Structure formats: C-alpha cells, structure tokens
Amino acid sequence: MELGKVQQAAVACFAQRGFAATGIRELGSAVGLNSATLYHYVGGKEDLLLGIMNDCLSAMISGAKQALDGSTDPVRQLALLVAFHVGFTATNPSTARVTEYEMRALSPAARKQMQALRDAYEQLFADALQAGERQGSFSTADLGIARLALMEMGTGVSHWYRPDGRLSLAEVQLNFISLAMRILAVPDEFPLPPQQLPVPQVIASEPTSKD
Amino acid sequence: MELGKVQQAAVACFAQRGFAATGIRELGSAVGLNSATLYHYVGGKEDLLLGIMNDCLSAMISGAKQALDGSTDPVRQLALLVAFHVGFTATNPSTARVTEYEMRALSPAARKQMQALRDAYEQLFADALQAGERQGSFSTADLGIARLALMEMGTGVSHWYRPDGRLSLAEVQLNFISLAMRILAVPDEFPLPPQQLPVPQVIASEPTSKD
Amino acid sequence: MELGKVQQAAVACFAQRGFAATGIRELGSAVGLNSATLYHYVGGKEDLLLGIMNDCLSAMISGAKQALDGSTDPVRQLALLVAFHVGFTATNPSTARVTEYEMRALSPAARKQMQALRDAYEQLFADALQAGERQGSFSTADLGIARLALMEMGTGVSHWYRPDGRLSLAEVQLNFISLAMRILAVPDEFPLPPQQLPVPQVIASEPTSKD
Amino acid sequence: MELGKVQQAAVACFAQRGFAATGIRELGSAVGLNSATLYHYVGGKEDLLLGIMNDCLSAMISGAKQALDGSTDPVRQLALLVAFHVGFTATNPSTARVTEYEMRALSPAARKQMQALRDAYEQLFADALQAGERQGSFSTADLGIARLALMEMGTGVSHWYRPDGRLSLAEVQLNFISLAMRILAVPDEFPLPPQQLPVPQVIASEPTSKD
DNA sequence: CATGAATGAGAGTTCATTCAT
DNA sequence: TATGAATGAACTCTCATTCAT
C-alpha cells in the first residue's frame, strides 16, 4: 500500500463529497485500510489534503514553466500556457478541482503557503499577457478581466472533459487556444502547431477512474 | 427576526467555509439566535440550503427569461443573457457561489430537483447559441465548448467582482458581452446600448457585506 | 377545551408510546392546542401525569371500598373486590395501564404519594384474604403469592379486554371470580349473583376509543 | 469489556427508568465507558434493545420447548411450561420485564419480528391447554381467559420474587403449578415431582444484582 | 504494518418550559 | 385564552485522533 493510493482515494472522495464531508473512516475503507492505519501514511486529515494540493500546484507551476520554454514570443507563450492549463486540468480533473475548491478547508498557515503557489502560477499568465500587450499583440478592453476569464474557462474544463468524449485532448487544447486568441483579438492563425502542444502528466493523486 | 436574515447569514457562512464545515450553532450565533431557535425558521440544515438554492435558481431562470424578452435576435439575446448572467453573479456573488458549489451537499432527491432548474437555466443559453448558429451569426469550432466557456467565465465573476472596485457593474457586463462576441466571432460592434443592459436584483439570501 | 380532553389525549399517548417517549407538542396537537397553551391547563408534564394517576388511584380505592360495603363475609368481599378490579381495569384500560406502568416516571416525592395510594388499594385485598383465611374459608399454600397472582391476573385484563369482544364485561367478571375461588379452594358455587356485580365508572382521563 | 456487560447495564437501566428515559451517556457511565465507545459494541440504542429482546425471547422459546420434552401428557406439559415460565421470569426478572414492556419502543419492523417470537412462545401454552382440554383433563369456563391469566400471573413474578426471599425458586414454581392446576380444575395431586422441575438459566443480559 | 478499543469534542436535532404579546 | 418566539439542556450519534497490542 502506497501513499499514492491513499491520495487517489482521498481526491476521489474530496472531489465528490468535499473535504469537510468526507470522513477518515470513509477514506480508509476506500483503500481497504483501518482508519487508524491511515495515520501511518498521512499525519492527519489536513496533512493529507495539504500534500495533495502542494503536489498539484507544484506540478502546475513547473509544468507551466516548462511549457513557457517553448517560445519567447508572448503570443505563443500565452498559447502554450492556455494549452498546458487546459491539458493539466483535463488530465487531472479531480485533483485540480480539489486543489481549487478546498483551499478554504486549510488552516490559515497552510492556506497562505498554498495561496502563494497559486499566485505564482497565475502570475505566469499575467506576465505573458502583459508582455504581449506591451508589444501590441493583444487588444482588449481590460487585461485583468481577460486573464480571469481565460483561467476560469480553462479550469471549467474539469467539469465536463472526458478522455473518451467527443473531442480529443489535443482538440480541446487547440480549441481553447483559439478562444483565447479571439478574446485577445489576435488574428486567427493558430500560433501553435499541434505537435508542439504541451503533453500533460498524470499526477500521483489523480484517481484512475471517476467512479 | 426574519427568514431572510437567517438565509443571509447562512449564505455568508456557506460561501466562506462551505456547507459541511458550517455548524448550525455557528449560523445561530451569526444572527444572534440560539441554535434551537433556528428550527422555528428552518426545518433543518438541508432545508435551509435547499430554500436558498431554490430561490436563487428560480430568480436566475425568471431573470434570464425576462432578459430574453428584450429582443428576438439571437445575437442580442445572447448578449442579454451574458449581461444578465454576469450581472446576477456580480450582484449575488455569495448566493450564486453557494448555489453552484453545494449541489453535492444535497440529498439525492433534492439534488435532482435543483439540477433540473440548473439545466433549465443553461438550456436558455444553449437555445440562443443554437439559434444564432443556425442563422449563421456565430462562428466557432465547437458550440458546446463555447457555451461552457462562456458560462464558466461569467460564473467566475463571483470570485473577483467588488461593487466598489475598479470597474462598474455596467462596464463589466459590457466587457463580457464583448468577450462573448469575440468568442463567437461576431463583428465588433456592441450589439447592446448600455441602457438596455438587464439590471439584476439583489435576492433575499445575499448577505449585505462580505465580512 | 377542558382538562378532561387533555388528560384523555395524554393517557392515549402515554399508554401507546410511554410517558418519556411522548412529547408535549405531540399532546398539544392531539387536542388541537399549541404546546404553550397546555401550560394553562396543566402545570407541566409531570403534573399532568400525576393528576391522572391520582384520579385513577383515588377512584380505585373509593370504588373498591364501596364494593366492600356489599357484604361482610370475607369470601363475598373478595369476590366483590376481584369483580371491581377486573371491571375497573376493563373499563379504564389505558388509564389503569398508565397508572401502573409510569410510576417510575414520577419524581421521588410524587412517587411516594402514589405508591401509598397503590399500597392502600392492595391492602384492601390483603385484608379480605387474611380475614377469609382466619375463618378457614380459604386454603392455599401461600397467601402472599395468591394475592399477587390474583391482582396481576386482573390487571392483565387491560391487555386484552375489548368492550365489543367475545365476552361481556359481566361474564369476564364472573369468570375471574370463579378463577379466584378456585385459586383459594372455595367450593364451586358462585358467591355472587350477577346483579350484585360492582358496576365500574369510566373516569375522566380514559380515552373514548383506543385508536 | 464485553457486550454482555453492556447488555446487563442496559437492562438494569431500562428496567428501572424505561428505554426512552435512559440516555446513552447514562448507559456508558454505568459500565465505565465513554458514550462513543458504546458504539463499538452496539450499533445504536435500538439495536441494543433489539439484541437483548431477541436473546431473551429465543431463550424463552428454546427453554420452553426443552421443558416440553419432559412429558407427552398435556397436564404435565402445562405444569412444565408454567414451571419454566415462572422459573425463567424469576431468574431473569429485569430482562423479562424489559422484553415485555419495551416492545413499543421498537421500530415497526423490529417490533414485528419480536412480536412473532412472543406469539410463538405463547402458542406453546395455548397448544398444551388445548390438548389438555381435548382429552378432558381441564375444566374451565373460558380457555382463553385461563391462558391469559396463567401467563400474566407468571410474568408478575418479576415484580416481587427475590432469590433471597421467603420462598425458594422451586417452592414458587411448585406453588404456581398448584395455582394453575386449580385454575384448570385438575384434581389436587402434584403432577410433577420437584426434581423434574425445569432449571432455568441466567441469560447474558440479566444484571447480577438489582441495585 | 496493522488494528480494535477508546475518547473528548462536536455534529444536527428535539426537548420541556417560559414569556411577551 | 391562546400563541409564536425563544432558550438551555439534553438527546443520539459521528468525528478525528491516539495508543497499546
């Protein structure tokens, strides 16, 4: 029995019922463990959540940074960020949702840490947008709103994307790049060839099936 | 002491800490009432939530339908819907968030009812989009994604809009109409004069200040 | 609205669900009264029970004493007592049962009072038995056991007697006299002509129908 | 700490104060356990009662059947049944009383189960009585009343029998056999030698002392 | 590595009772 | 006479957590 299995079960439960509504015994029986045994793998309920969120946000930041390496052009960078964000969210929907929703369940100290990571991640988008606007590539009434709208859109993917759905992951990514370009009034040529789309990784806490 | 006050306190708590993490005593003391007294006004914790969500979704549906009356042109209708959605969400951010987030906290029977209302609301958007596409006003790779992205964007407003913020409500509404038009590739003239923007109502359960 | 109605409703509930399991609101709605209004008629839940039991035991004692007046012969007196006891229990089954079962629900002080009444009632039987034995009319291995058995038997009538049942009240009374005579080894002639059977009264707290 | 101890404490409390009036904390402290710990041994308050009643009624049925094996003569069978009933009740007075009194505290489903057991037990008496009557051994005005009176008498033993009292258990048993024979007008020779009296067992839920 | 037993705290809910109206 | 509002205390039950085994 490894920590990953526990995290997967936790994420599955937290995504479905919420952190506060999920009992520690429930988690235990989901992995076939006595509730007391869980305390050998995780230091407590909050520690479990904190570990999951920390892994998730770290993966998002490092993944986004890696995606950014694909270009120095702000337009392409934004496209890469959007594609990564959508990709990550679609690949790790439960973990991403838990990470977003359950920030409030953390104690103040832990929340501050996680919020800092979240801010760092969002700053990557803000930077690309600002760079693009400075060089005149983007045109929008309010850059702040555009950024928030872009991120919210991408995050929303976790609500509906299914790997076996109508659209492939790459299609969804390209689609969202297209939406982003429109929002920013970038002329409608794809700034990114499909083979350059960031390929997201499944992280350890993401449950295999959403049942 | 009226039901509205109780609902407001409940929404404030539920939005901040979540339904499951909010105790009934906490709610009581938030309105200066003994926990037992709450049961004079409310049949139970879930009934309280259910009442709030039902009022909210009903207001959203009737408000959206009323907004739709402003025009028969799908493009303008979509603009009106977006403006209403953003307006409602910005005006009732806590209630809207609770209504969206806490669906999972409901018992299966109640959840089905509320989900039906939510579906009815979203269908209004789907209908306008489809009508517009049929008449060739919209151009997008995938209409489904576009709708989801639009709604998610609008819902996200509850996360950041402040009445005393940098932008007025009307500005935000117009901004989102503009985003929507870009997403749907409608040529960039505002389809709606500002004085035709739907003016959203504050519903009873929305707390006055977000303290 | 009179006290009697409240007592009847109370007895009906107490007999069915028990004193502790019956709520004051339940009683109120059974007579169409707000729970607070009940406090105009009765000083509290225990006072209500106490009043019922006091009335019942008083009626039993005075009824038994009156029955005793029918003869000075211990054998006939015992027959009269048995007939009265059975008659009273069959006529006021719910009140009699509540009076017997719920002694334990009383506070110590009140219990002592009621127990004293109960003891006085039972003493009437003990006296008749002793008198009969002294004059050699009864023959039994243990007079104490005989008395307890006799009373228990009679009390049990409340469990099964129905006014519209197979046997009339007089038949049941005669039957129990016969049983008593056998238990005490009195030769088998009826010591009591049917027209001398004590006719029991319905007391105020006895509910009309047992629904 | 075993289930039996918990049952004993429960029976002691239920017999004294009644099921509804007994709190779960009260039970816990009666066995020196935290109220939460009780739920390791018992699934809930009603489960606890149900278990006790089920054990008791099962023991009564099997004990009575075993007693019946002592003879094929209905008269002796009835004597054996009466002796067993009195013996069981005197040996397990609290459990027997709780089992009889608290049927009403059960939920409808559970009550039906227990009532069926109770009916099966009483049927054993009804069968013996009927068999005896068919062969002309019994003479009574009404067999139904006789049976009810017999059982009620025996059950009443729980109210007054004390192991250290004036009469030994065997004496009480013989006494009740004698009463039964008189009630049924069987000529007065003891149908049962004392050494054939059924010896009742103490069941697990019966508290050791009635303090 | 794993667990049953144990617990204090707290959950949602109902209680009998009071009181101003 | 009647009631809605209010409350402290208690209810049954579940929680996260600890610890000896």
From TrEMBL, chains A, B, C, D:
Residues 1-60 form the HTH tetR-type domain. Residues 23-42 bind DNA. Keywords: DNA-binding, Transcription, Transcription regulation. PROSITE patterns: HTH_TETR_2. This is TetR family transcriptional regulator. It comes from Glutamicibacter nicotianae.
